[in-house]
Design goal:
It is built from 23 helices and no strands. It is mainly α. The longest helix is centred in the middle third of the chain and has 24 residues.
Length: 370
């Protein structure tokens, strides 16, 4: 497209012309003549401004085409790439799977803020670094773990493989990709053998030359124990729950230290039914005493929870959903019913986050001494 044509499109306010301009600029930038010049700070700032102003008005199919055009571009503006990565999954998929612009922290942020579908695409991304692998393992989302197990290029250590094999005891979908994983060892294969079906057992035995007689005896003993009602699961399950809490705390610490712990994570934790993770994240974001947060959740004063949420940047319009989800997960607490919810809305008065935080600390401290 000629420079005159581009100027004509730039002057037009018609949506179709704006979208043509968006794609034309992407084509121009992606030409073999663009080179390293596209990566200069001044050009990057200009491109980011142009693209962001145009993409917000673009229809879904145009954003999809733009995503496909920019997926492999190393010159694409970082802000635009991150916006597209958080778009509908069909738009985000090419970006998440290919874009060289997405870095470790960008991918970890997607694991925290985006949908399960986005997280699965992150886990499938080629050559995942160990930091991203660790974040996936720490969250422990079954579908995302399964996608990771099917990614042979991810930087998985022996310890990571051990964690995935242990998880496959409860998550059946993990077993097939793990049985075929190039980093599976003979020792781990022996453990996996006890949990998989007949076809996979035969494959593991052939691949690692396992002594199936010994393993089948162990399998039979395990099944007999289960049939006789002798449960050995209670203690390991408790241990795994404790490990999950530790891993969640490590994830929150990592996200917070990297500046990636955001208010949106609180909503996601509640939607996934993880009240403890919500409480820990709220305490970290607001620099609150974790005991005060827990006492608030167990109280009959939802206005205190509202103050804490206002202090960390939660919008007034979102709080009713937070309160409803919290009550469902916490046996109706914080109580107060509809009247309590009405009082809670007052906490979002036009005051600064610092004032809301100070008010929460004072009230929660008094609540803890009741």
């Amino acid at each position: 497209m000629s420079s005159e044509s581009l100027l004509d499109l730039a002057k037009s306010r018609q949506p179709a012309d704006r979208e043509r301009l968006l794609l034309a600029i992407a084509d121009l930038c992606d030409s073999p003549y663009a080179g390293e010049a596209m990566k200069g700070p001044a050009i990057q700032a200009l491109l980011s401004s142009i693209f962001m102003s145009l993409v917000v008005e673009a229809e879904r199919d145009i954003r999809h085409r733009l995503s496909e055009k920019l997926a492999a571009a190393d010159w694409a503006p970082n802000a635009l790439v991150n916006v597209l990565a958080l778009d509908d999954i069909e738009i985000a998929r090419p970006i998440i799977s290919q874009s060289p612009v997405l870095k470790e922290l960008d991918l970890i942020r997607l694991l925290v803020e985006a949908t399960i579908e986005h997280q699965i695409e992150v886990a499938r991304r080629p050559r995942l670094t160990h930091a991203v692998v660790s974040a996936i393992l720490e969250q422990g989302e079954p579908a995302v773990l399964t996608a990771l197990a099917g990614n042979p290029t991810a930087e998985l250590t022996l310890s990571d493989m051990d964690e995935l094999v242990e998880a496959s005891r409860q998550i059946a979908a993990l077993r097939t990709p793990l049985s075929q994983h190039p980093k599976l060892t003979g020792q781990l294969a022996k453990r996996l053998y006890l949990w998989v079906g007949l076809a996979l057992r035969q494959g593991l035995a052939d691949r690692f030359r396992l002594d199936v007689t010994v393993l089948d005896e162990a399998l039979a003993a395990s099944m007999n124990e289960a049939q006789n009602g002798v449960s050995t699961e209670a203690q390991p399950r408790t241990a795994r729950e404790g490990e999950r809490e530790v891993m969640e705390q490590r994830l929150i610490d990592k996200l917070h230290s990297a500046g990636q712990l955001r208010p949106g994570y609180l909503i996601r934790a509640l939607r996934e039914g993880r009240l403890g993770l919500f409480a820990t994240s709220l305490a970290m974001l607001g620099r609150f005493d974790s005991n005060h947060v827990q006492a608030t959740l167990d109280s009959d004063r939802p206005e205190l929870l509202a103050l804490a949420c206002a202090a960390v940047g939660i919008d007034r319009s979102v709080f009713p959903d937070i309160l409803e989800m919290t009550r469902k997960l916490n046996e109706g607490r914080p109580g107060g019913g509809a009247e309590g919810a009405r009082k809670a809305s007052v906490a979002f008065a036009p005051v600064t986050a610092e004032v809301a935080g100070a008010a929460f600390r004072q009230a929660a401290r008094a609540l803890s001494h009741i």
